[in-house]
Amino acid sequence: MYGIINKAIQDLVIQKFGEEKWETIKNNSGIGVDFFISNETYDDGITYKMVGAISEETNIPVNELLFAVGEWWILKVSKEKYGALLESGGSSLHDFLVHLPVFHNRIMLIYPKINAPEFRVSDIEDNSIHVHYYSNREGLHDFVNGVLHALGTMYKTEVEVELLESRANGSDHETFKVSW
Fold first, then answer.
1. What residues does each domain of the chain span?
2. What b/e sequence results for 93-104 when a residue is b if at least 16 CB atoms lie within 10 Å of its CB, and e otherwise?
3. What's the rounded Cα separation, in Å, for the pair 77 and 82?
4. CB-based contacts of 83: which residues, under 8 Å, 6+ apart?
5. Into which CATH architecture does domain 64-179 fall?
6. Sheet of 118-122: strands edge to edge?
7. Torsion over CA of 14, 66, 52 and 42, rounded to 10 degrees?
8. Is the separation of the CB atoms in 29 and 102 below 8 Å?
9. What global pTM score does this model have?
10. What is the rounded CA–CA span in Å between residue 68 and residue 51?
11. Which of 61, 71, 80, 178 can pair with 146 through a Cys bridge, CB separation 3.0 to 4.6 Å?
């Protein structure tokens, strides 16, 4: 993963728990990285180790932690660093989600080495849409759930997100129904 993801996780921990707690987590995780460079790639194992160490140190279950990181990613990191790019996705949650499948194409211009997930949409209605999430990284559907909720917040739209299909249940991807 790119360092910007790991840096976002670090910043969330520091904001919620303080610098001292981050240092403890960093040391306990065994990641061996003192600081993250946003546009450098890091082994995915570093991110997973960090999340595990944060969960252990804070007693926050991994699924809740990943959800919080997904929200943080949209409401803090993406809005600050990529506000114009987010805004180009549409003027409503519906528009943004319809255009989500091409969103990472624009991200690839910024991060050419990105191993981005793929999104597809189906069952497009006036007040709901199915978002299909494909990734070679396992266990991040709670992050995506947090992202989807945060997009609702960003567009001032109360959302309900339901996980319809999951790789944990034999599917080859996750399918979320986003309703508003």
1. 3-60, 64-179
2. bbebbeebeebe
3. 8
4. none
5. Alpha-Beta Complex (3.90)
6. 118-122, 128-134, 174-179, 160-165
7. -80
8. no
9. 0.92
10. 11
11. 71
